[in-house]
Amino acid sequence: MSKKPPLIIIVGPTASGKTALSIKLAKKFNGEIVSADSRQVYRGMDIGTGKASKSEQRQVKHHLLDIVDPRHKYNVSHFQKDAVKAIKQIQKRGKLPFLVGGTAFWIDVVVYDLDLPSVKPNRTLRKRLTKLPPSKLYSMLKKIDPDRARMIDKNNPYRIIRAIEIVKSTGKPVPKITKKSPYDLAWLGITLPRTKLNKRIDKRLAARMQKGMVSEVIGLLKRGVPASRLLSIGLEYRYVTLYLQGKLTKQEMMAQLRAAIHQYAKRQMTWWKRNDQIHRIKSFAEAEKILRFRNIA
């Protein structure tokens, strides 16, 4: 039996049901959940991020939700530090940590204790790069770090610029993921056929719009979150902001947003397809069986 502390990781594309599964498993195995979602850390971004509801959070303790003002930036280095701290606190209480989310690179950084380059912001470089469209930035990154470009959001200039900044500063791509981990890992990956997943994405998007997605963005703007910030956060926040700016009709917003989320899900699946440690599951029963068989929970 491994002497390393156990860590359960639940991954899957957006709209695959990670939240529901993680809550059910955490209740079953006396666990707590560490959210690994780059947008759920922000306060006031609830509908567009699919954040666990207050009722769900009362069922199981969640960590790293609503910890940052959306006017401020929170990157993978911040997340690594906060997630490791949360995992240690959970373990200290004698509970089982579940790392759950869809931000693939952030998860790998924690799971494999990746030593991230300590690169300070280059104001001169950033000033030059911010003048370029996302498509041009993405082409630049693809040339100097194709692996990072493969997973990054093509419409998120902030992340692309940061990735370029790291390569320009260090002279080399972001370090590749190794398979060594300080934890005894149990990877669970929710699997759905692409057509079924896309239908779930479309249905969820319609529900979010009906629930008040536009009002949520209006509220963020009124609270002083710059439109440029919402555009950089991407997906629902990007396209609803463009709609509110009059740059898209409602029909165009919905069509482009659906396509963007489908593409995002595809990138997530591509990233995890390379991980042969993931147990592909389709139900709670399968997940429970794997954890019991591994004697990890």
TrEMBL record:
Positions that bind ATP: 12-19
Cofactor(s) required, per the database record: Mg(2+)
GO MF term list: ATP binding; tRNA dimethylallyltransferase activity
UniProt keyword ATP-binding, yes or no: yes
Segments forming a coiled coil: none
Entry binding sites for substrate: 14-19
InterPro entries noted in UniProt: Dimethylallyltransferase, IPT, P-loop_NTPase
Positions bearing the site annotation: Interaction with substrate tRNA: 103, 126
EC id: 2.5.1.75
GO terms under biological process: tRNA modification
Region Interaction with substrate tRNA, annotated ranges: 37-40
Function: Catalyzes the transfer of a dimethylallyl group onto the adenine at position 37 in tRNAs that read codons beginning with uridine, leading to the formation of N6-(dimethylallyl)adenosine (i(6)A).
Family membership: Belongs to the IPP transferase family.
Protein name: tRNA dimethylallyltransferase
Lineage of origin: Bacteria, Candidatus Kerfeldiibacteriota
